[in-house]
């Protein structure tokens, strides 16, 4: 029986048997989403300082998830289950606005992801240097930094299920000391401390950037959709579970720390939770929190690299990048894509947190505006698209759902510095010239692209169940041809079995 095959709907260049590579199940996916978004309360301390006290920080982590995290998670759940393939938001944007904008979305998100990931090995050593001062010296720092990056990259190479299992263990280890701290702090809590605020001392740019950075990246896990077991059911459950976990991981430590201590709000800087632990429970709790902080950074690195690598794999399967980026190891992982991301991490690891936070938020904001626009356009343009999970709102109400987070995105962009606007402009320019350059390589056949390999397409690469599922998706998503620039005759050749 013939089938309408398309490069995005097949896995022809990945000879590894799918059944030999375990899929992500619910709990590991929740842990990976948790690390994509949060990783624990490490880094939220600055929201107390920039907010001029405890009140705005607590209100922020109560209110922002309602107007930002939940809408983004709902949109991600609908689109990720509608397009359950590696590549995530690149596929959504391409289907709504065409392959050029899909590529731009992928480039922005990959670039910001690699920059973000470069921070975590550095932060890992920053936490340890308080107890092991030698890590503050360049001669010890550089080799450990490189060695740590290589080790974590190897874990990604060994398989996504290992990364998922590691994320579960790391999440439990990272959050447990804050559960203990919350219990110990109960007798010391004075609720009046939660409403302290000095509005004259509020640093609004730092406050909004802190809130935004600690509550974004809900869409990142969508790039792993092709590696998830039963994504139409698993993804929505995982997103809901992760939202609850992230909000609790912020609020419980903040309520415990600000409510039980009469400390100056200016003391609340990155790493202050270790001091809070010592004041509440003693030095043993401080050491535990420091160790949890270090381990959390490893989990953040693993989750980010997995998403970045599988995003490149998905873009390669769509014909946007050379096929080498889709080559899988015997463990089912995209070897070249992982190495590419790891190389970027090593080269960017010298940058500071302050230097790139605004840039990360700015690029992410641009990408999210495109995703919300794609969500609305696909509702209007393709109302019959197969949506295993659908946000339970009519199109008009779903549009209104996107208004508050879109407003927050624009607000964060407006608060950015002139330097951020300049650097972002350079990144956008590079993306605009990179896509036509790659398409020229594709046309001239200077590099091999999956969508060009018409003769190697065969139905033996997918098992029967996957084959039928993909065909159903192809019928429902008749407009997926927007992702390709192939002629109609070429598409017919590809569809033949």
Mind sketching the topology for me?
Blueprint: H1 26-37, H2 45-50, H3 54-82, H4 89-97, H5 99-117, H6 119-128, H7 138-158, H8 160-185, H9 204-214, H10 231-260, H11 272-281, H12 283-317, H13 335-348, H14 353-381, H15 395-414, H16 418-444, H17 464-476, H18 488-495
Helix pairs in contact: 1-8, 1-10, 1-12, 3-10, 3-15, 4-5, 4-14, 5-12, 5-13, 5-14, 5-16, 6-12, 7-12, 7-13, 8-10, 8-12, 11-12, 12-13, 14-15, 14-16
Account of the protein in words:
By secondary structure, the chain is mainly alpha-helical. Helices cover 66% and strands 0% of the residues. The chain is built from 18 helices and no strands. It has helices spanning 26-37, 45-50, 54-82, 89-97, 99-117, 119-128, 138-158, 160-185, 204-214, 231-260, 272-281, 283-317, 335-348, 353-381, 395-414, 418-444, 464-476, 488-495. Helix 5 (99-117) runs antiparallel to helix 14 (353-381) and helix 12 (283-317) crosses helix 13. The radius of gyration is 23 Å and the shape is globular. The chain starts with 25 loop residues before the first helix and ends with a helix. Residues 1-19 and 452-497 have low confidence and may be disordered.
Task: Compute the separation of the termini in Å.
Answer: 8 Å
Shape: globular
Residue stretches low in confidence (pLDDT < 50, at least 5 long) are 1-19, 452-497
Fraction of residues in helices? 55-70%
Largest sheet: none
> In DSSP terms, counting alpha (H) and pi (I) runs of 4 or more, how many helices?
18
Q: Please state the average pLDDT score.
A: 81
- Backbone structural class: mainly alpha
Could you state the order of secondary-structure elements as H and E? HHHHHHHHHHHHHHHHHH
Based on CA atoms alone, the radius of gyration comes out at 23 Å
Compute the number of strand runs: 0
**Fraction of residues in β-strands:** under 5%
């Amino acid at each position: 029986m013939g089938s309408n095959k398309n490069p995005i709907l097949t896995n022809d260049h990945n000879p590894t048997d799918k059944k030999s590579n375990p899929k992500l199940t619910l709990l590991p996916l929740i842990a990976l989403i948790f690390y994509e978004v949060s990783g624990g309360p490490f880094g939220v301390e600055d929201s107390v300082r920039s907010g001029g006290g405890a009140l705005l920080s607590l209100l922020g982590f109560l209110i922002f998830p309602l107007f930002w995290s939940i809408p983004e998670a709902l949109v991600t759940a609908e689109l990720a289950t509608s397009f359950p393939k590696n590549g995530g938001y690149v596929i959504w944007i391409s289907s709504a606005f065409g392959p050029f904008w899909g590529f731009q979305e992928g480039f922005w998100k990959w670039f910001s992801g690699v920059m973000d990931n470069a921070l975590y090995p550095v932060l890992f050593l920053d936490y340890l240097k308080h107890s092991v001062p030698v890590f503050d010296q360049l001669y010890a720092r550089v080799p450990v930094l490189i060695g740590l990056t290589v080790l974590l990259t190897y874990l990604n190479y060994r398989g996504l299920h290992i990364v998922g299992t590691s994320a579960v263990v790391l999440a439990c280890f990272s959050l447990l000391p804050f559960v203990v701290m919350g219990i110990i702090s109960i007798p010391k809590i004075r609720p009046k401390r939660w409403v302290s605020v000095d509005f004259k001392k509020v640093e609004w740019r730092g406050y909004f950037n802190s809130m935004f950075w600690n509550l974004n990246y809900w869409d990142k896990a969508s790039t792993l959709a092709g590696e998830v077991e039963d994504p139409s059911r698993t993804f929505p459950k995982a997103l809901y579970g992760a939202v609850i976990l992230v909000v609790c991981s912020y609020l419980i430590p903040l309520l415990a720390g600000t409510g039980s201590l009469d400390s100056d709000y200016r003391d609340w800087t990155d790493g202050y939770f270790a001091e809070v632990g010592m004041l509440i429970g003693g030095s043993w709790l401080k050491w535990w929190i420091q160790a949890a902080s270090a381990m959390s950074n490893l989990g953040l690195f693993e989750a980010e690299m997995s998403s970045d690598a599988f995003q490149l794999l998905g873009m390669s399967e769509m014909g946007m990048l050379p096929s080498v980026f889709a080559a899988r190891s015997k463990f089912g992982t995209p070897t070249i894509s992982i190495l590419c991301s790891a190389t970027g991490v090593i080269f960017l690891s010298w940058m500071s947190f302050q230097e790139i936070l605004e840039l990360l938020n700015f690029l992410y904001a641009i990408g999210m505006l495109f995703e919300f626009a794609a969500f609305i356009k696909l509702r209007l343009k393709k109302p019959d698209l197969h949506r295993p999970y659908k946000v339970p709102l009519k199109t008009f109400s779903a549009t209104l759902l996107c208004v508050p987070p879109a407003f927050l995105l624009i607000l964060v962009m407006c608060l950015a510095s002139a330097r951020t606007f300049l650097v972002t402009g350079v990144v956008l320019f590079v993306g605009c010239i990179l896509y036509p350059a790659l398409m020229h390589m594709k046309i001239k056949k200077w590099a091999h692209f999956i969508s060009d390999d018409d003769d190697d397409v065969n139905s033996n690469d997918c098992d029967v169940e996957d084959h039928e599922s993909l065909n159903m998706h192809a019928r429902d998503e008749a407009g997926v041809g927007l992702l390709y620039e192939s002629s109609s005759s070429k598409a017919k050749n590809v569809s033949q079995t």
